[in-house]
Predict the structure.
Amino acid sequence: MSVNKEVKRITTNTIQEMKLKGEKIAMLTSYDYSMATIVDEGGIDVILVGDSASNVMAGHETTLPITLDQMIYHAQSVVRAAKRALVVVDLPFGSYQGNSKEALNSAIRIMKESGAHAVKLEGGLEIRESIERIITAGIPVMGHLGLTPQSIYKFGTYTVRAKEEAEAEKLKQDIMVLQNSGCFSVVLEKIPAKLAQEVTASVKIPTIGIGAGPYCDGQVLVINDMIGLTKGFKPRFLRQYLNLFDQINQAVQSYVNDVKKGNFPDEKEQY
């Protein structure tokens, strides 16, 4: 009789040890039970319940419309599936900016109602108070610098950030603020690879890149983009490992065809 080997849970501590050992961290998003089960069994280290659910699950143009209640619903579904991965949940737009008490309440709701392991917030110095308040309550925080999609209307574009000296300088200061505030890691989104390399070497906490080159301590992609469920979204940083959009589309067409022609169900498929 084979004994099921107990799965060892990845923790924030594991992630920090991985940086020390020079072991890369693999992170993907998930938003539902079925996908999170596959991702977790596939050996992913961190599952991000991203506010990108606003785009890929709900069809919004930006990440701004998704609510805290909706994020909690997605997080609950993912947590039920994840046996090994560390589950990090995005605090959605409007649930933490400008009010550290509200930020703490939002983070507490996510942790209590979903059973997730950490939260992620976008921004640097301007949200330091919120980060510190959440960490003081015992909730681990992952930071997010570079292109911060919740600020899309401020930027006005999804192009690469921190190419200019002033913005690069601010990012270097911000990552120090995040480290000193107690963040256990930070996502760097769409910044020059050279800058990502420099800041990754300058901090003790792991950096996880998306469109930030190969020198970060780990990488993250949106699962729907990575497996080609999303149609027409192909930024330079995306490596698409499957083309599920076309495959599922063809399967649906075959099913429709079989039903219309009376080929489904056949004799084996009835009682």
Remarks:
- The first strand starts at residue 25 and ends at 29.
- The chain has a mean pLDDT of 96.
